[in-house]
Amino acid sequence: MFRVIYEWRVAAEKMADFQHAWQAVTDTIHETVPGALGSALFRSTQTPDKVLTIAKWRTQKDWEVFWGQSDPAPMRPLHQLGERIGVETFDEVEDRTR
Amino acid sequence: MFRVIYEWRVAAEKMADFQHAWQAVTDTIHETVPGALGSALFRSTQTPDKVLTIAKWRTQKDWEVFWGQSDPAPMRPLHQLGERIGVETFDEVEDRTR
């Protein structure tokens, strides 16, 4: 598995709208892009406007095909609600959560 | 759910040992500490010695009881293999991975 961590700044008053937009974006990408396996939304307890969305992909190559379109259209609604600070990519070496 | 992201630097030649130690540490904590729900291990594809371990906890309070012991004993083997750079805490707002 492959993971992409997007870091965002989202104002408190826009958080609910951001979550709703992220739900729709996540489902659209999952249903239409090969290898996309959804996303999880985390909100910092230390810096309340700091949000991570952690996407799961089958392989790095699947994500690169998607990302290579540069600023893929399905993600645009999120940019109207939050500022993207960074994008980092990781191999999921092992998942021992239950 | 509550998530704690630990960021580490682990030299390439110590990565396998780090993973083995993390497996044991994760299982020990999961089996002995109330509210601990395991961990996932991610390795950066951009910065190969950058590693994240993302722990899942039932609640923030459960983690604080564990963490309040300051440098909890079960985690010590990891510090012999990697340098811990940071610890950040997040509410898991929603998980839409499949």
TrEMBL record, chains A, B:
Stored Pfam families: ABM
SUPFAM superfamilies: Dimeric alpha+beta barrel
Keywords in alphabetical order: Monooxygenase, Oxidoreductase
Lineage: Bacteria, Pseudomonadati, Pseudomonadota, Gammaproteobacteria, Vibrionales
The protein, known as: Antibiotic biosynthesis monooxygenase
Residue ranges annotated for the ABM domain, each copy included: 1-64
Superkingdom as given in the UniProt entry: Bacteria
InterPro entries: ABM_dom (IPR007138), Dimeric_a/b-barrel (IPR011008)
MF terms in GO: monooxygenase activity
